[in-house]
Request: fold
Amino acid sequence: MNAVTVNGRTYKAPTRPTVVVCVDGSAPGYIEKAAAKGRVPFLARMLKEGTSRLADCVVPSFTNPNNLSIVTGAPPAVHGICGNYFLDPETGKEVMMNDARFLRAPTLFRAFQDQGARIAIVTAKDKLRKLLGHGLALGPDKAVCFSSEHADKATIAENGIDGVLELVGMKLPDVYSAALSEFVFAAGVRLLEKSRWDLMYLSTTDYIQHKHAPGTPVADDFYAMMDGYLAKLDKMGAVVGLTADHGMNAKHRPDKTPDVLYLQDELDAFLGANVARVILPITDPYVVHHGALGSYAVVHLPADSDIDKVRSRIAILPGIETVLNRREAAKRFELPEDRLGDLIVVSAVHKVLGTAAAKHDLSGLTEPLRSHGGISEQAVPFLINRPADIAPERRLRNFDIYEVALNHVR
Ligand SMILES: [Zn+2]
Reply:
């Protein structure tokens, strides 16, 4: 197998199975706190003897843009996925951005498959599956790509594999559960026990991190579960890299109610009803655990608007970290300019942005709100089970993980 160049970066061919784990919502602190209590012996060894750094994820610090950055090795300006949800300028409609037609760059899996590499991708939620597996020829000897959520429906034609429940030996997990992520790890271990995979990608869900802070009993249990599976991957000789799509912070007031700035209501009061259109790119079909509340919003304004005036008005609202116009946001966060609104609003560490208060159903929030989306959730772990030669001053991004695992591991 030869090195491949894709999206402007060159990757050496894997000489050992190379597994990247994206632990959804794994803010710095979860692993360290579990390690301090002796709950995660393998991760503790990674922290001490492997590569242990912090990296910056992509802003908006949401799931889809970051997963796509990790598998393309590039920012959203290159791959095009800048939210879970957006206002499609071509149709004027609000749509999910989980369709492969929105993807503008090949994944590194696709490039390595052309070199004969065998690829295995397992994701917790099915929403990501088609994007991650885009362009791959699927089949038991080529590539497999499936989700825990729909593990019972996996077919050779659609996923390159069938009989996933039997293979993994677990029953189909509930979509809102820790088991949905455990299934991902269990599947990764079983796949590698049964066959050689050159590149593997395991992507979990942040159901636990949305509800439980670092060092709390449920969070520690989750990382202890993960630790056992990662140790097995290591034992089979894999290079194991771990990063996260984004961090996570408490977004509630001292009385435990969510600290929300309802931006649509604010702009309606300022400009008139529905003159501005506020879009929350965190929106996805699985909003129960965060009520579609995150720290990043996009504002679309009519063509004749005084954008600077609206910007100044938003900037003075409580809990706003920054407001950028389209061009500035595209440059600073490396986003596709043609898929942004007129203003990009980022709220501060403990504040979230909503549209109109009446539009958010918060009845499913059984715990004080924890969420993400902002600059304050940009720091994520960057761990590899072996030492790597990387300059200490290099600013690492979560989407450098395959590059470091393939090119710089000793
Ligand atoms: Zn996520």
